[in-house]
């Protein structure tokens, strides 16, 4: 099979890159000829992910809540690669809970990482990008429809979704694109944990609500993310792309 070269020579920062959706996107980017800087919180898992991707990947262990991480990551990418073409900002899912059960501390901690931390990195990345650059923000279908039991996600993701459009207007004149991705039920460890919390039959009930009647695979999400960051999607910006098997009932 001929290797795709749609990202040949391009370089990206990928957060949440040690597993799940972030790692799947990194795999797709590297498979298309890109180089990636992975960011993740667990050094061991992160190191294994970078090793699996080979010479096209380097890694920085850290949390988006760290105020210095964004500057360090951009400087490292430019120093190692000599260029930066974009980022995929994938933030781990916040703790489950209801409006009444979620504590102030859970809100503050999630806001610092999911909201402020993500925006901090995006600002630093966008400042370093030139024409052809692209930033993808991994959100959730909760950006458009609330998901029962995921109150923090329901509260924070829609705000980030609005900022995708706001920021895209700001950087589009420089030739930089910003898009949001809304994964639905993708078969990751995070979703498996949520299913386990919901009890027996949770996956079957969830699949019954999906028009395609199955969960997506991380690889399916990764291919969409890689395409949206590529120059083949050069006229797409300021929008949210669902990767959900048709589960969202909004257009």
Automatic annotation (TrEMBL):
Q: Name one GO biological process term.
A: siderophore biosynthetic process
| Keyword entries, A-Z | Oxidoreductase
Q: Which GO terms describe its molecular function?
A: 2,3-dihydro-2,3-dihydroxybenzoate dehydrogenase activity
InterPro entries for the chain? DHB_DH, NAD(P)-bd_dom_sf, SDR_fam
Q: Which family does it belong to?
A: Belongs to the short-chain dehydrogenases/reductases (SDR) family.
Please state what the protein is called: Unannotated protein
Q: What is the lineage of its organism?
A: unclassified sequences, metagenomes, ecological metagenomes
